[in-house]
Structure formats: structure tokens, C-alpha cells
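STRUCTURE:
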């Protein structure tokens, strides 16, 4: 059943008197509890689409609904957790205090949030390999560790939809690979609806139920590929022919876009 519905959405930006068409006629229907990646050339509107779904940007044409609500209504009901490129942690707070932050904000800002069943933040930190760093200050953590706190915090926030905008882009390859498996684990045990922007074909195939390939600007949907790899997924899956076939299929669509842009 469709949960997030993006219907014929178009978006323009005005800059220095020029209109830029960022998105054209985007149509997507995403089911609850699925992991969906957005991949496409730089500037094709992936972040803009994420922001529109999250109620942080308006559409110029079309409509977005989340379980029948507008993005702003969904936002006011605390339906979204954001994981940006660099985790917004307070350096002088401990890891645990940073984990508690959205809960503190929610309780002050919205009494309905009090009803959200809270997950044990320490367990969440353990699931991303940070069980020994609960009382460390955020400033004492590496970039990769900070990003893992951001991911654990998003999964513990009570929000059913997580919007992740290239959360691993600032990390080295080895850290990135390790974190992608931790994200896979934590997602498979929570099954929140995730919209994940990435430039990595490997991450898109490893993590996703669905990969949305976008065309060069103006961003359109070039292809939607269902990733039929079995779950739970483990590291060995990357060595399978099926995995490589999905990567090749997506690369093929992206090459078509490079040629036409
Ligand atoms: N606030 C803004 N004002 C003007 N133009 C904008 C604004 N935000 C985005 N754009 C333009 O919209 C287009 C899409 O940008 P967006 O950041 O969504 O792309 P992206 O696919 O996420 O890019 P990247 O992969 O490089 O991060 C770009 O041409 C960008 O310059």
C-alpha cells in the first residue's frame, strides 16, 4: 500500500533573475517500511526531492502526501527524522545526551511525543558498535563514530520516516563500508521507511528495496528498480552475481544520463 506519494511534482528555483527547473513531473509511490535510495547525477534534485517530502521546501506543481497528510502536517506530527551529511551533535554533550536531544525537544514542543514508546538509547548505540562510548563527549569521536550516533539517534527518535541525505559522503571508504552494514542491521531490525540519497551504487543495492534513478537536471525519474536480494543481507551478498547485475543495471541507466546531459 502506498505510504509516501509524490504526484507529478515539479520545482523551479529562482536565482539571480534566472529560473532553474530542478524537478520535472516526479511521480513515486513508496510503501511503508521500505528502504528507498535516490541516485543520480550531481544537481539532479535528489536533496530537493528529499526536502520536499520532509516539508522543508514547497512544490511548484503537483502534490506530496504521507499517509494522506501533507508534508507540513506530517512534520508537525513528528513523522520525520533527518540524517544530514554531517551529524548535528553538540560537541560538549556526551553521546547519550546527544541521543536524548530529539526526545527532550519533542517533549517540550509536542505533548503527543510523550506517548512515543522510547527505545533504549544504549541498546541503539550498541547496535552501531558504540556501546563503549555512551559517556564520551561527542567532540571525542571520529567523524564516522559521530555519524553512527546520528543514525542511532534517528532510529530512536520515534519518527517513522527517516530522510538521509548522503550521510556517508564525508567518510573514508573503509569506514563507509562498515557503517553501511551497521545501517543495514539497524534498519532490518526496525523497518522504518527510509529515503536515502547516495552517489554509491554499492550502497544503493546493498541497502535498498527500491532504487530510484534520476535523470540529469531537470530531475526526472529515469528508472525505478526493485532490488529483489533476500533479507537479512550480509556481507557475502556483495559477492553474488545478482548483486553485480543490479549494480550494472543502475550503472547502465546512469551512463545513459551522462550521455544525454
Ligand atoms: N535554494 C536553492 N536556490 C537556488 N537553486 C537551488 C537551491 N537548491 C537547489 N538548487 C538547484 O536545484 C538543482 C538541484 O539541486 P539539489 O541540491 O537538489 O541536487 P542534488 O541532486 O542533491 O545534487 P548533489 O548530488 O550535487 O548533492 C541544482 O541545480 C541546484 O543548483
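SEQUENCE:
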Amino acid at each position: 500500500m502506498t505510504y509516501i506519494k509524490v504526484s507529478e511534482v515539479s520545482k523551479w528555483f529562482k536565482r539571480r533573475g534566472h529560473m532553474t527547473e530542478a524537478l520535472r513531473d516526479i511521480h513515486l509511490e513508496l510503501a511503508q517500511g521500505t528502504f528507498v535510495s535516490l541516485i543520480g547525477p550531481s544537481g539532479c534534485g535528489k536533496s530537493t526531492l528529499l526536502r520536499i517530502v520532509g516539508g522543508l521546501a514547497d512544490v511548484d506543481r503537483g502534490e506530496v502526501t504521507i499517509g494522506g497528510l501533507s508534508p507540513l502536517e506530517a512534520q508537525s506530527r513528528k513523522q520525520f527524522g533527518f540524517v544530514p551529511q554531517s551529524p548535528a551533535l553538540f560537541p560538549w554533550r556526551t553521546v547519550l545526551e546527544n541521543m536524548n536531544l530529539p526526545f527532550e525537544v519533542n517533549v517540550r514542543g509536542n505533548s503527543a511525543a510523550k506517548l512515543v514508546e522510547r527505545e533504549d538509547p544504549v541498546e541503539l548505540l550498541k547496535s552501531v558498535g558504540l556501546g563503549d562510548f555512551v559517556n564520551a563527549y561527542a567532540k571525542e569521536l571520529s567523524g564516522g563514530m559521530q555519524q553512527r550516533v546520528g543514525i542511532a539517534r534517528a532510529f530512536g527518535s520515534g519518527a517513522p520516516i527517516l530522510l538521509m541525505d548522503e550521510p556517508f559522503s564525508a567518510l573514508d571508504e573503509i569506514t563507509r563500508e562498515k557503517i553501511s552494514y551497521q545501517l543495514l542491521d539497524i534498519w532490518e531490525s526496525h523497518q522504518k521507511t527510509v529515503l536515502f540519497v547516495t552517489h554509491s551504487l554499492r550502497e544503493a543495492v546493498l541497502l535498498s528495496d527500491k532504487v530510484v534513478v534520476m535523470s540529469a537536471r531537470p530531475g526526472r525519474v529515469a528508472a525505478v528498480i526493485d532490488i529483489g536480494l533476500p533479507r537479512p543481507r550480509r556481507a557475502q551478498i556483495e559477492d553474488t552475481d545478482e548483486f553485480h547485475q543490479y549494480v550494472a543495471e543502475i550503472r547502465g541507466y546512469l551512463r545513459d544520463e551522462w550521455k544525454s546531459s
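REMARK: The radius of gyration is 18 Å.
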